[in-house]
Design goal:
The longest helix has 8 residues, at 101-108. The chain has an 8-stranded antiparallel β-barrel. It has one helix at residues 101-108; strands spanning 41-45, 51-58, 62-68, 71-77, 86-92, 96-97, 120-132, 135-144, 147-162, 168-179, 198-212. Strand 2 and strand 3 (62-68) form a beta hairpin. The chain starts with 40 loop residues before the first strand and ends with a strand. With 215 residues, it is mainly beta. The protein is 4% helix and 47% strand.
Length: 215
């Protein structure tokens, strides 16, 4: 939900029994940068400096990009035992912004998100695997329009820093591609020359600046 990049928001606490599975790609701590151990703890996405976005092909020839401005997040990163890391992200779909007001209204309507009936979408991780170096794979449940399906998120750690205001920050990039029709987002128009007006494949992008939460 790698998930995430830079903005401040309220923290929602995941259930301690939320089904997080313990999966190890290698023996505990093997191949991990020792500096990652110092990052163990709870983090929150800093919204003004992060982007929870998506991109989709339009009319077969161009790409439309958008992002969600309103969401809550909880991240727990374990630098010694990556399998214990977890994330939860709850997004208000009415906050979608593609830069075109008419298109945004269409997206929150019944053809797509149907925000009146389904105001939120969510990602809740179920396992995390260290794939080597600073790359991780986070598997989780993605819920859209009350349909929940598993997704794999490629997550890359970008580094950490203490900013001029004394906040400890860590950066992550996360990406995955889904077939929107599997979540009931089936609206489309066919082109005379063949193909679809809106691609069924949607790339989800998480550019995260996370701030360490108080103990």
């Amino acid at each position: 939900m790698g998930i995430f990049s830079r903005r401040q928001t309220a923290v929602i606490e995941p259930s301690p029994t939320a089904g997080t599975s313990v999966v190890e790609a290698a023996p505990r701590g093997a191949g991990l940068d020792p500096a990652l151990r110092a990052l163990t703890g709870r983090w929150t996405i800093d919204r003004p400096h992060s982007r929870i976005g998506f991109s989709v092909r339009h009319a077969m020839v161009t790409t439309v990009r958008g992002a969600f401005a309103d969401y809550d997040s909880t991240l727990y990163f374990d630098g010694a035992r990556p399998s214990e890391s977890r994330a939860e992200l709850v997004i208000r779909v009415a906050s979608v912004d593609t830069g075109v007001e008419q298109r945004d209204a269409h997206l929150v309507g019944t053809d797509f998100f149907d925000a009146r009936r389904f105001p939120e979408m969510a990602f809740r991780s179920t396992s995390t695997v260290h794939e080597g170096g600073e790359s991780f794979r986070m598997t989780g449940d993605l819920t859209i329009r009350d349909t929940t399906r598993p997704v794999d998120l490629q997550l890359d750690y970008l580094g950490s820093v203490v900013d001029p205001f004394g906040f400890e920050r860590a950066g992550f990039d996360g990406t995955t591609t889904i077939d929107r029709t599997e979540w009931g987002l089936v609206y489309n128009q066919r082109l005379k020359a063949g193909g679809a007006m809106v691609s069924e494949k949607v790339r989800l992008q998480f550019d995260i600046s996370a701030v360490r939460s108080p103990s």
